[in-house]
Amino acid sequence: MRHNGRPVILASRLTPNLLSLSDQGGCALVACPDCGCWRSVKRGMVTAHRGPDVPGADAWPAEFRPSPPRCPGSGQRVRIDVTFEQWRKELAEACFEAGKRRPTRVLPRPKPPVAPSVMQLAAR
Asked: Residue 22: exposed, middle, or buried by beta-carbon count in 10 A (0-12, 13-18, 19+)?
């Protein structure tokens, strides 16, 4: 597989929720920068995958339906320059910060009155 020609993405520049590392040093997972699906990183690149479906393809018969094109994020070079401990610490800090945010207040609104039916209007 060849890379897509874009500049290398450093794992240290990604937010911790877009990266998944293993403490055993297995393969890393990265959210694709274009479609957002989780793909493994092999040989320093996001593995090849298909993009979203072709619009209008469901109207075609199954045997003639075109396959979705390759996602432009396939083959994106990624350099894992953080350790598992650093990534885990950043992820814990991000979760703690998100937990401190206040939720929005939901204000109930009255429902509008129901319009009378045509039969009720004719009876008046």
From this structure: exposed
DSSP 60: S
Residue with tokens 């393809």: 57
Of the candidates 5, 22, 7, 25, the one whose C-alpha atom is nearest the C-alpha of residue 79 is 7
Strands (E), the chain: 9-10, 19-20, 29-31, 38-42, 45-46, 78-79
Residue-wise pLDDT for 62-91, tens only, equals: 787 777 788 888 888 999 999 899 999 998
The structural domains of the chain, with segments of one domain joined by +, span: 9-100
What's the token pair of residue 1?
A: 């597989």
Prediction pTM value: 0.66
**Listing from the earlier edge strand, what are the strands of the sheet with 19-20?**
19-20, 29-31, 38-42, 45-46
